[in-house]
Amino acid sequence: MRDYYDILGVDKSSSPSDIKRAYRRIAMKHHPDKNPGNKESESKFKEAAEAYSVLSDENKKAQYDRFGHNQFQNMGNSNMGGMDFEDIFSSFGDIFGGGFSDIFGGGQTRRRQADHLKISLSLTLEEIFTGTSKTVKIKRLERTGKEPVKCNSCNGTGEVRRVQRSFLGQVVNVQKCMSCNGLGYMGGLEKKSATIKVKVPSGVSNGNYIPLKGEGNQAIAGIADGDLIVYFEEKEHKLFSRDGQDVYVDCFVNYHQLVNGGEIQIPTLSGDIKMRVPAGTFSGELLRLKGKGLPYVNSTRNGDQFVRINLNTPSRLSNKMRSILDELSNELGNEVLCKKIKD
Fold it and tell me: Is there a domain that residue 111 lies in?
């Protein structure tokens, strides 16, 4: 077994409360009830319990620090090997404010609920900007009105308990009954199509979701209906790019507009507007349109729109344009200025 300090992720200078917190975190993560059948988690749970039994005891910790891990174990001071889960739970129940059973649901009646359903809803950037309502069609289990029958496999509990023996002792695994899908009853339901209205708030992002309570699979025998979880997927926009609540767009202008400045027309999510380009603007410069980005969810505040100004280099020139450029070349000269690229 590894060094006890390594197992808990602490060091010799850690306080008793730090050691207790570290053990609690690992025990919560690798508890067998949360990881049924997972031998790796079972082993880590046992390791953590053994490490804590030593490092939480002032005398044992002093011996461990003095003699080291291998010498300590050779002295016969590793006393967790013969303990089962009940011993571990009762020994350290104070850490969890009433024992492991309170944390992991042991001895408590869980609120059963029918399965949730998940769907994805595609949205344009314009729909995200304004918010919208969508109607979706789903297939779900709905009540038929017929009397359900208690499940024989779980006797109406919705759970199946299996007792296993391990090197830690007797372990009880509680799993959802697969015969009735955790409902405890069978029959009284059939799959039907349903039409659901989804109200999409403005400003949502790709991957955001909203739960529609009770719109998932329906249930029987007093069990709560499941929810419908609607995930949002943002369609790629042909013009705008998005970064959080800010939007970006490239704008190509002519040379005289960069030098002299002036007003140009710019598209935004709320329509075209006029924007002032300052005289002497450099190609590649970002100009900001404050508040023209996407709304923040449940807020009156908006992000900004950034317009990147680029020089439009024509590929075809008339004779007159060539003549003007020749005059400009004679006026400005052909020397170039080089600078170090800034990170």
Answer: no
